[in-house]
UniProtKB/TrEMBL annotation:
It comes from Polaribacter gangjinensis. Residues 334-398 form the Mechanosensitive ion channel MscS domain. The keyword Amino-acid biosynthesis does not apply. It is found in: Cell membrane. Belongs to the MscS (TC 1.A.23) family. This is Mechanosensitive ion channel protein MscS.
């Protein structure tokens, strides 16, 4: 009787246990759980685990199921079932075509996924096709050969680790260090060759130092990749592999951030050398702005990658950041407008650093273009800070982009100047303009244009090549001094506002009117002398405009 009762109780417990471990393929979570649950040591039933593969023979399905479990364990891919959807109709698409598919590790191993087939969830066809390839990558052929060579004593455990695993770790670290040293030298040589090819000059000490700093993290990344590829062959437990590979991923992300930060520095250094050779100074101002922008981009992307490794749902975080960013942008429209204005200034280039600009409200020299505003220094050395949004909309007269600087003035001769001397004076002024080293030779005027209140008016209209304000004043000075010397040599006097009273009843009184010498030969000699002296004092450059 006791035996019958015991048999009854045992049979009841057996059937209850069987109900608890039934195969469930109703949703992504159930399918993945079924696969892994029936391959654990205490619940090892590979036939049930193979049910998660559709359309395969039982033997092949069992082989695929076991290999996939080893791949996940070898790469330390710990599955958090709380994050796997339980929806039988889960799909990750938005378009008109619904795709019932779930990728378990979209970043670390996107080849593994489950999909809905005939109302149930199975591992996808892509996964089935990739399992053998992934398995050979995680456990290369030499692993099995080496395991056959390990003696029985090599499987003894010390602190829970087998002796052959200790030896494997030491050999892996030694090989990795050796490869890091070699890769560092090769990376530096390649980077130096690229830098010299791009810049067409040998690397200086500063450039070599930057390239060495860039080559070092590159070699470390390669070292991490070696450990990442070989470590699964040591066949540690899933917990150990999970911690090791998380550490490797964090280290790799930090190194990549460092690599790209150094790369930004190298690229900006090359761009800075390029902009220093251009005439425009606005692109020089773009260098620090671009450097800061690219640095922020690298740090933000690296931070998102780090958060994803630590298990943070970056999709939700990104969505929240986007909404928050939109709200922030709406709350700070002026800042956004100024940023857009800055972009427009760098695209359109209405002026360059150092240009003299004139607007309806101010005029001065452009000193700096920032993210938000532009700094302009007025003639009295005061500073104007103009929002870039406003500066990109107003009318700007860029005096710095003049091809020539125009100088117009009127000279007044006395009314009693003889016509011969007026012609001689005008002729002399023309010749002085022609030999002036800074003047434009094909466009100028020197003409007797009319009669003023107190003087005969001589128009002088000349264009100077120098665009610098100080050099323009120096060019004016040279021309004005030469004209004064010409007038002195010709005996021509400049008029000034005056009133002349004529007294005819005092013959003993002499008039104040000057005596003009209109001898043609003397006039020609005077003009030739003044022009020759001016030309000797101010030699004209060969490349005249």
């Amino acid at each position: 009787m006791k035996k019958i009762i015991f048999l009854f109780l045992f049979s009841t417990q057996f059937f209850v246990a069987q109900e608890k471990v039934n195969v469930d393929l109703s949703n992504p979570n159930a399918t993945i759980y079924t696969h892994l649950y029936f391959l654990q040591e205490e619940t090892f039933q590979p036939i049930k685990a193979s049910k998660t593969f559709f359309g395969l023979k039982q033997k092949d399905a069992i082989d695929k199921a076991i290999k996939l479990k080893k791949i996940l364990d070898g790469k330390g891919l710990f599955i958090d079932f709380n994050k796997i959807p339980n929806d039988p109709n889960y799909n990750d698409t938005i378009g008109y075509r619904r795709v019932y598919k779930y990728v378990i590790f979209p970043l670390r191993m996107p080849q593994i996924s489950v999909e809905k087939i005939n109302g149930s969830w199975y591992y996808s066809e892509e996964t089935v096709a990739q399992i053998d390839t992934l398995y050979n990558q995680v456990f290369p052929w030499y692993v099995h050969k080496l395991q056959e060579m390990i003696p029985v004593s090599g499987y003894k455990k010390v602190f829970g680790i087998e002796l052959w695993q200790f030896v494997g770790i030491l050999l892996l670290l030694a090989f990795t260090v050796l490869m890091v040293i070699i890769i560092k030298k090769i990376s530096f040589w390649i980077l130096q060759a690229l830098q010299e090819k791009i810049t067409h000059k040998d690397s200086n000490s500063e450039a070599k130092l930057i390239l060495k700093k860039l080559a070092h993290p590159i070699s470390l990344v390669v070292g991490i990749k070696i450990i990442d590829a070989v470590f699964p062959s040591l066949q540690f437990s899933l917990d150990v592999n999970a911690w090791v590979f998380m550490t490797l991923n964090i280290a790799e992300t930090i190194f990549w951030i460092y690599v790209f930060l150094k790369l930004v520095k190298v690229v900006m250094k090359l761009y800075e050398d390029f902009t220093s050779k251009t005439e425009s100074k606005l692109d020089d101002q773009l260098v620090p702005i671009l450097r800061n922008f690219l640095t922020v981009v690298v740090v933000v992307i690296g931070s998102f990658r780090m958060l994803h490794i630590l298990g943070v749902d970056t999709t939700t975080l990104l969505a929240g950041a986007t909404i928050g960013g939109l709200a922030f942008a709406l709350a700070s429209q002026d800042t956004v407008k100024n940023l857009i204005g800055t972009i427009m200034i760098f695209i359109d280039k209405p002026f360059h650093i150092g240009d003299w600009i004139v607007t309806s409200e101010l005029e001065g020299t452009v000193e700096q273009v920032g993210f938000r505003s532009t700094r302009v220094r007025a003639a009295d050395t005061s500073i104007f800070q103009i929002p870039n949004s406003k500066l990109s909309e107003i009318v700007i007269n860029n005096r710095g982009m003049l091809l020539f600087r125009r100088h117009r003035t009127e000279l007044g001769l006395r009314y009693d100047t003889p016509p011969e001397l007026i012609d001689a004076f005008v002729k002399g002024v023309r010749e002085l303009i022609m030999v002036h080293p800074d003047s434009r030779k094909d466009a100028f005027n020197a003409e007797f244009i009319g009669f003023g209140d107190s003087a005969l008016l001589i128009l002088v209209n000349v264009y100077f090549r120098s665009l610098d304000w100080n050099l323009e004043q120096s060019s004016k000075h040279k021309l004005h001094i030469a004209i004064v010397k010409l007038a002195k040599e010709l005996g021509v006097e400049f008029a000034f506002p005056s009133t002349t009273v004529t007294i005819e009843n005092f013959p003993e009184k002499k008039g104040i009117n000057p005596r003009y010498d209109t001898d043609k030969e003397r006039i020609e000699i005077a003009i030739s002398s003044v022009v020759s002296n001016f030309e000797e004092e101010n030699p004209t450059e060969k490349n005249e405009i």
